[in-house]
Design brief:
Elements (H helix, E strand, L loop, with lengths): L1 E7 L5 H25 L9 H11 L9 H33 L3 H12 L7 H10 L10 E4 L5 E4 L6 E6 L6 E5 L10 E5 L4 E8 L13 E7 L5 E3 L4 E2 L3 H31 L3 H10 L4 H28 E7 L12 H8 L3 H15 L2 E5 L7 E2 L4 E2 L1 E3 L2 E3 L5 E3 H12 L11 H22 L3 H16 L1
Parallel strand pairs: 8-11, 11-12
Antiparallel strand pairs: 1-7, 2-6, 3-4, 4-5, 6-7, 8-9, 9-10, 13-14, 15-16, 16-17
């Protein structure tokens, strides 16, 4: 498995940064041209090499003002992005095909046309591809892709930080970038130009990382992913307890900042209406820029990511097998108010899922996905319905449990449940749990045959059901 590592420039010279920025801007125009000409039906079945050969033959490449290798790598990268967007659309179309027909022969025919990029021959497939595959646009004007044989690493002193020498705009010219690391990048590099320096992205084998040599634990646990913390396991341990504070602080900061920016945009628009174009331009240039906005958002994302990965590493210190809810589909429910809805929209459950997959893969633990339906609304002791309120879970027999730990134990139990599989519909899951609840209540009624005891149990069950 490959993972991406990022090295950062250190004390970058302004002249060098300007040269790299100019090169990235020209490569951005090349990337935009690829998307413009081959980002739709004209690009089906066309590889990056074919685009390169066409442009070299018709003279298009001569107008780029770039060395051959940089623009060729950019063409290949853009063609791969287009192919990836087309493949993502095919996933949706395959789902539509399965919903449309139950005939195996017709389904096989449609799927084969889709796989071989001959979907334009069928009206249904063509209509679905137009629906799910929209023409894209290039927004990357700050990236340079450098092939592995086009740069070199060196150090100025033994044990010192690495320098990276990459091609410039002129032939046989090199731009040397000082990095903040002693680890030399390898393979194909992606240079991303920022306001204050350069990010060097490269891939390494996960088995070579230091965390890959760190063994996992020996327990089998279930986890409940949450907003206040990264997760809680079935043993009651909590991991990443700062996550909720980080998410709330960033969400509230963006709310206040976006409100101020909206007021400034209104002032600029009003200035334009009265003819004061100079003032409107000053506001947009000095008060509505995106560089600081993106930098602060990136710092917040990095803090959240660090908290998540640290928490998952602590989890894997204990766990050999991890049962996890499958939260791929959107979660619907009652509205919790504007503030909480906004904060929950920023909940990084995808980052947590990626961290669990990455860390467990490197350290040798296994991840088992289970059905997430009603794991937070079921009493783990007897499989009956109860009521969750915040961090507390109220059972129908009056017992109050920790809601996160209860859900984590349910996830662990769900891993070996013979009646509820990963693909069982949530409506069927509800029927199964309701049947277990009714069966358990009947047992309690038969144990307490007195009239008063039976009425008491029925009243308590009715109260929980009505809530």
């Amino acid at each position: 498995m490959k993972v991406t590592r990022v090295a950062y420039s250190q004390d970058m010279n302004a002249g060098k940064l300007a040269q790299l920025t100019e090169q990235a801007a020209r490569l951005g125009r090349v990337r935009s041209l690829v998307w413009q000409q081959y980002g739709s039906l004209a690009g089906v079945g066309v590889s990056g090499r074919e685009i390169r050969d066409r442009w070299m033959a018709d003279g298009t490449a001569a107008a780029f003002g770039l060395l051959a290798n940089p623009w060729k790598e950019t063409v290949r990268d853009a063609a791969n992005d287009i192919a990836a967007s087309r493949a993502a659309a095919k996933v949706k179309v395959r789902q539509a095909v399965c919903r449309r027909t139950s005939d195996p022969g017709e389904r096989r025919r449609l799927l084969m046309l889709l796989k071989s990029d001959r979907w334009a021959e069928d009206r249904f497939l063509s209509r679905q591809m137009r629906k799910h595959w929209r023409r894209g646009n290039n927004h990357a004007h700050n990236q340079i892709v450098v092939r592995s044989d086009q740069y070199r690493n060196f150090t100025l002193a033994e044990g010192g930080n690495v320098w990276l020498a990459v091609p410039g705009l002129e032939r046989r010219s090199r731009i040397c970038i000082p990095l903040n690391t002693t680890v030399a990048p390898s393979g194909t590099l992606r240079l991303i130009l920022r306001v204050r320096g350069v990010e060097v992205h490269y891939q390494v084998d996960a088995s070579s990382l230091r965390s890959a040599r760190r063994p996992c634990g020996g327990e089998t646990v279930g986890i409940d992913r949450g907003y206040r913390e990264v997760c809680v396991d079935s043993a009651g341990r909590r991991y990443g307890t700062r996550l909720g504070d980080l998410l709330t602080a960033e969400s509230d900061r963006l709310r206040a900042k976006n409100a101020r920016r909206a007021r400034l945009r209104a002032v600029a628009a009003k200035a334009e209406l009265v003819g004061d174009f100079a003032r409107a331009e000053r506001i947009r240039r000095h008060n509505l820029g995106r560089a600081k906005y993106r930098r602060q958002a990136g710092q917040a994302r990095q803090a959240i990511r660090t908290e998540t990965y640290t928490a998952v590493n602590s989890l894997v210190d204990h766990a050999k097998v991890i049962a996890v809810e499958d939260l791929a589909r959107p979660i619907t429910g009652k509205s919790r108010g504007r503030n909480w809805n906004r904060r929950l929209a920023a909940w990084t459950k995808g980052v947590t899922a990626r961290a669990i997959s990455d860390v467990s893969g490197r350290r040798g633990s296994a991840v088992v996905l289970v059905n997430a339906a009603y794991t937070s609304q079921t009493d783990h002791r007897n499989g009956t319905f109860g009521q969750r309120s915040g961090r507390l879970f109220y059972c129908f027999d009056g017992v109050v449990l920790d809601a996160e730990v209860n859900a984590a134990v349910n996830v662990l139990t769900r891993m070996s449940d013979p009646d509820i599989t990963l693909w069982t519909p949530h409506a069927v899951v509800r029927q199964i749990i309701q049947a277990r609840t009714d069966s358990h209540r009947l047992k309690l009624l038969s144990q307490d045959s007195s009239r008063e005891g039976g009425e008491r149990i029925i009243q308590s069950c009715s109260a929980v059901s009505s809530n």
